[in-house]
Amino acid sequence: MSHIDNRPEKTKYDIKEAFWKLFEEAPVSEITVTEIARVSGYSRYTFYKYFRDVYDVLEQIEEDILRETDKAYMSVFESFRSGQKYPTVDDIVKASLKVAELQKKVLPVLFGKNGDPLFHDKMRSHYSSYLRAYFPGLLDDDSMETRIMVEFYTGGIISALSFLGRHVNELTWEEVLEVIYRKFGLECR
Question: With contact defined as beta carbons under 8 Å apart, do 123 and 150 qualify?
Fold first, then answer.
């Protein structure tokens, strides 16, 4: 078996990490390729081998996040018991906590003051897919009623993520979930 050269993946990872350090402090519009090259230790030439511009770095990071989030939320189906049609509140809370753990470093930034407003729409689209997958038969059609329900629920999720992004030092995602489910009288555990 031949040895796989992981240097290109490591280089991309290092450049993304450098971008992220800068993005935690400033909006993407204020980050330059020169700064990313300086922080990452790679040249501008190397940067352009992997990315078109700083917005492409952000886009690729967001796609990585959405892929991981999709895997976590769709893993809910693996825990279904025989004959179970819908996920339980506990199933959804567990998946949400898994996502929060995976994304605890990035979600507060993406939903914080320097975050990407377009990412909110991307997440809303993904959460809409999760809801439709979680509740087959209830949210399958494209009627106005179904679209309103999906928008209502995904809007609430995105608002909660945005709230958490602005208050990251005050409460955890687990605390947010506890409040949401406790207020609605649902059992979290």
Answer: no
Domain boundaries, the chain: 1-51, 61-183
Tokens standing for residue 107: 């979600």
- For residues 84 and 134, the answer to whether their CB atoms sit within 8 Å is no
Class of the 1-51 domain?
A: mainly alpha
Chain segment 134-155, per-residue pLDDT in tens: 777 778 888 999 889 889 988 8
pLDDT one-digit tens code per residue, 97-113? 777 777 777 878 888 78
**Rounded to two decimals, what is the model's pTM?**
0.80
SS (H, E, C) the chain: CCCCCCHHHHHHHHHHHHHHHHHCCCCHHHCCHHHHHHHHCCCHHHHHHHCCCHHHHHHHHHHHHHHHHHHHHHHHHHHCCCCCCCCCHHHHHHHHHHHHHHHCCCHHHHCCCCCCHHHHHHHHHHHHHHHHHHCCCCCCCCCHHHHHHHHHHHHHHHHHHHHHHHCCCCCCHHHHHHHHHHHCCCCCC
